[in-house]
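for the recovery benchmark. tokens below, seq after
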């Protein structure tokens, strides 16, 4: 091969390599589109609101809008109020106020202990009432109870150390008895006793 031919071949090789290198290293033209920044906001979970329930029997309490209050109609004159609160978790919270034969909380608790095995007993306050709280049964339930003037107040929910315990505690802390209603009931009772006493004297 002649010297000239070798030079031409080498020249062509250099041109091919150079062209290839230039094409590889050449900056790529941007496509004709607008780059958009997409921001995906996390769906905000609406926090439950606090609602107030007022009962005709003379009490009120605050509860989460996550709960639904249902009045339970009973054909029983000894029951002043019976409520069921349903929520997002299985189970329910119940509130019942009714007459009782027991004169005080100790007598009621003593009678209950002959029928049920109760655990985790501790004294608590239910508005102005002295109450007791305990767990019992299977599945486990947690009950708060108070007895005053032969009326028993009961609040009960599943003992789950979570959702229902939180709801029960919240309702118990916000529970208020209407002094006008309960004061009036006490006055009526006192008046009846006075009338009976007068009749006996006559």
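predicted aa per position
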């Amino acid at each position: 091969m002649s010297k000239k031919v070798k030079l031409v071949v080498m020249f062509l090789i250099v041109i091919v390599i150079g062209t290839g290198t230039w094409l590889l290293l050449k900056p790529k033209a941007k496509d004709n589109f607008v780059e958009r920044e997409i921001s995906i906001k996390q769906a905000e979970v609406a926090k439950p609101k606090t609602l107030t329930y007022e009962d005709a029997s003379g009490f009120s309490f605050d509860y989460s809008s996550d709960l639904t209050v249902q009045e339970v109609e009973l054909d029983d004159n000894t029951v002043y109020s019976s409520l069921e609160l349903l929520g997002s978790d299985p189970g329910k919270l119940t509130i019942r106020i009714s007459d009782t034969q027991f004169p005080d909380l100790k007598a009621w608790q003593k009678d209950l202990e002959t029928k049920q095995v109760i655990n985790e007993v501790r004294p608590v306050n239910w508005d102005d009432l002295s109450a007791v709280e305990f767990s019992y049964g299977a599945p486990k339930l947690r009950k708060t109870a108070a007895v005053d003037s032969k009326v028993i107040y009961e609040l009960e929910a599943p003992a789950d150390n979570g959702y229902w315990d939180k709801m029960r505690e919240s309702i118990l802390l916000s529970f208020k008895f209407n002094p006008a209603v309960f004061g009036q009931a006490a006055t009526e009772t006192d008046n009846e006793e006075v009338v009976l006493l007068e009749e006996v004297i006559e």
